[in-house]
Amino acid sequence: MHKIFLTACLAAPLTALAQTQPAADQPDAKPATTAKPSKPAPVLPSVTVAGERPTNRIDRQVYDVKSDISSTNGSAADALNNVPAVAVDPDGTVTLRGSSNVQILVDGKPSAMLQGDNRGPTLQAMNADDIESVEVINNPGAQFGNEAGGGPILNLVMRRNRKPGGFANLNANGGYAGRYNSAASGSYNEGPWGFQGGIHVRHDGRNSTAVVSRDRLDPATGAFVHSSQSSSGAGLNDMGGVNGTVSYNLDQRDTLTASANYMGRGNDQRAIDHYLNGATAGFAATDYVRTTAREGDAKNFSWGGRYDHKGQLPNETLKIDLRVSASENDSNSGYADDYAGGVLPDSRSHQRNDNSSHIVDFTGDYERPLAGGSLKAGYKVATNKNNADTLYTDFDPLSSVAVVNPARSNRYQLEQTVVALYGSYQLKLNDNWGVLGGLRTEHTGMDIHQITGGVEARNNYTNLIPSLFATYKASETANMRFAYARRIRRPNANDLNPYVVYRDEFNVSSGNPLLKPTKTDSFEVGYETKVGALETNLRGYYRKDTDAIVDYRTFIADNVLLTTRQNGEGSHASGLEFTVSGKLTPSLTLNSSGNLARSQQTTQDDSGVLVSRSANSLSGRVRLNYAYSAATQVQMALQMQGKTLSGQGYRSPNNTFNLSLRQAVTPRLSLVGTVTDLFSTNKMETVINSATLRETSTRRFDGRVFYLGLSYRLGGAATAADTHNGPRFGPPPGPGGPGRGGPSEG
Q1: Which candidate, 561, 554, 625, 542, places its Cα nearest to that of 588?
Q2: What is the predicted pLDDT for the residue at 606?
């Protein structure tokens, strides 16, 4: 598959695009002036064109990530790590303001490839250069559903070039330890037709090492028994994808759009784990090494169609949208356990996993002016089918015959249907005040099929979800914003599946079919203004979770630790979030943000006692973009993630420092170099301290990953808009009334 993608990157489609008429390469750029044929266009000083449009709206903040220097060789995970209050760890876990209850959409719609265990690998495979902007919606309004998290939303707005003519972009990058990636994207618009597409390949991954120190209570003796685990994992995987969009204007008011997307990646990995387990009253001490060899593939695809109609009234629109997406993953893992001292016989086993998710999402949105404001209403019908099939076999040590292990084999299905209606109304009360209120009702039906155990279960419930936003124009350069929203988080398929998954003989996990949805009430107040040349944004927030879903660990046998999930008594978080951005000097641009937060969780300890834990943390990032000359730019980024609570414990703070360089070789050709985690400081440390378990787990990843590549633009004029100047965090919009949002979800 990799060779096919790489060949296609260099093939005919881009040759055709290179022959089309010039067009501006960014949707919001000013019209470009074509250079005279006899004189090449000069390399002009850097200009932040993206900042000309407002980036804050009444219900969201919009961060322009397409102009980040590292976007040409980075992944979607790298792009999200550049957004204030967002953090993506090397495993692909996404947090916003310290919460992992985050919903990720693509152009306002859910996608199977960004749900469950697929999310992390997909974000690491997706090309950052395909993303136009990221919308951060901390308090989602009535038009947004509650799939795949139900909490705050990160909406990835993909690039769309609607300028007449043709445009294309080619990127090729090589990295440390055999890593590489390349991508080609382009568009062509002529008359009523519009075409846009892209293709990319990537060979990447993050090798890791881990150390776990565990002390568990032996109930027979009342003493804590020590055990440890050291691990190393390696595996760079091939990833590739292709996408395309075709649009046709039927007339001045009606447009049809069709799109398709395919992405594939490998699941290959090699790992070695060394376990030392102390003896308890009922279990002898063990010392063994487990070797794991995993291979497999993941396939993600989607297709959809959309009808857009502009009505007779000003700003009257009708949008009908159908999206179908699927994710199919298979892996085969071989295990070899070698025991020291002859306490237990050496053993071999094999595990096959086939997991899939299919989503059909059909929505409609209608908007029209009404009584001096704007009314919006819509519907949603969505189905989500999840299937998990695990076959575990043990090999007889004497005959090498494979025997199915029924205790570790399982097949499970979850079917979920959501039917929703919503309505919202936004009104500019006067020159200073604007409001947006909405109400959404969702009916959820769930069918659970535990096929192996022959267990069937159903659950149905209806939720009312209100939201309210207001803006106040405090001065010509300052706005205040107010927000309230209620959300629900439904447990996903893995959360509900009671099947016990064996990581090894002493660490297992399972879902909890008794989980209830988490209800979240979120409040926020913000103040935006300019201080000299700097744009500032200060937001205070409070979030309360009822029936919060948290990790819960307990021993189910003398030496076997089970990790599952349960509804805690509740949790709440509050904090202050700020951003400061702008030019410190004509050559130096600052983008900085921070989040000073306090969080508290109340959960049931493994002894049955309610325990409250709290954490104060400071997270932030500082990015400096320095234009050394008209052709040379350097970007430095420091990211710091504070302490976060996690069930019975917490995750320790961590930080990384990244460095990027862009050198214009010609007006169209640029050399780009990036170094991530320059000082090798990125690590994940989790601490658990309960009545029966004390554990510290530290995992480190490849540091100092270096990429060097070329970026070349075809079509359009080489202008200052072609240069990159880092994400723009934007000024407050003009009047204090409601802003018109981007893609919406019905």
Answers
A1: 625
A2: 62
